[in-house]
Amino acid sequence: MNQAVPAGALTAAGLGWQASGHATLAGPLYRLADACDQAFLALASLWAAEPEEHPAMIAAATLQRVGYLTSFPHQATFPVCLDADSGNLLAFTGSDPVNSDGVVRLARTAPARDLLTPAACYHIYPHHEGEQLGALRYITTRNTCFRRETYYEPLRRQWSFRMREIVCLGTRGEVQDFLAHAKSAVSLLLRELDLPVHWEVATDPFFEPASNPHYLAQVLQPVKHEARFGADLAIASLNLHEDHFGAAFGISRASQPATSGCVAFGIERWLYAIASRHGCDPAAWPDPVAAARRAAAALAAADARILTEVGQA
Amino acid sequence: MSSEPTQDRTTPQLAALRSWVAQKARDVPAGGLTDDLPLLAGRHLTSLHIPELLLLLERLRGRPIDADRLQPGDFRDIQTIAARFLAPDAAPAETAAR
User: Fold this and answer.
1) Which residues of A touch B46 (CB under 8 A)?
2) What is this structure's pTM?
């Protein structure tokens, strides 16, 4: 049975928490997070996804090519630097730089040109800008992501959190096939971990959604499905981007703007789900890597069965 | 062979909707635009067309549409759009009582 996870038990398992929405993972929780990510990588290996590692920041001008700042301004986090002028820096250091409420007494700031990464896969499309894909591509990446929220809860809703993604770039049919396959793979992994979820249609959290055509399109033609643990905790999502990124970054497949899609895992939320389902004693936790191996084997057997059935038809 | 004349149920509103879609839709099949062509699922229309289509429908029906009450499939194809928003008794997505 799923149950609320006591904060004290999480602390004993290695959680450090900053009320501003940031989690430290140590000890058993660190090892569980690492094992979850290894499990996601085992799923990524089903498609031989190429790993990529991207920086913590991304240029605002790059993200705005897909309208990020107008669609999600409320979630954006900007790194701010002081203007390097020595007089400005002297003014900053001349008084206590941090007030008693923890607020930095900023002096003049330098122009902000970057964002802290809001989703791991945003780096992939500009990195592959202008490519003409002779075959579909699978890529996996992980990043610490930053989304400003109105409240924070340890492992459930954080300002900074770890995200693993598996991305497919191809024709629309190829990406739709990938997403269907990915849904099976994630469902099998969840079954092996004994984590009950329900899949639901969802929309991204747009600013002023009713006036945003991308939100209206998501309502009218759903492209996002979330695996929800308990009442409302989305621990994985499947997303069909259509040619939103392919067109913006000149990535083509079969002489058309490439379609993209991704499966995304919020790593801390998997920790919460496991602790809720199996308790906070690490000895009772399942082994995510072994679960992923069993899920992959079950998926391969199912695929072989389907291929056999197709061959006999 | 039946010689029953086909009733033409094309209203001016439906004709205007077909005309708008014909102007905007991309990659229309060789057989031409039909009322059951899947507009969004087939990517013949994209998200960027939706605000303009909403304005068109509001003008054709003479009543506002509450975007908060749109449902999956409401813009599936011309016949669905016409049934949902242009029929005299169309109920969904009316302005919600607030």
Assistant:
1) 217, 242
2) 0.90
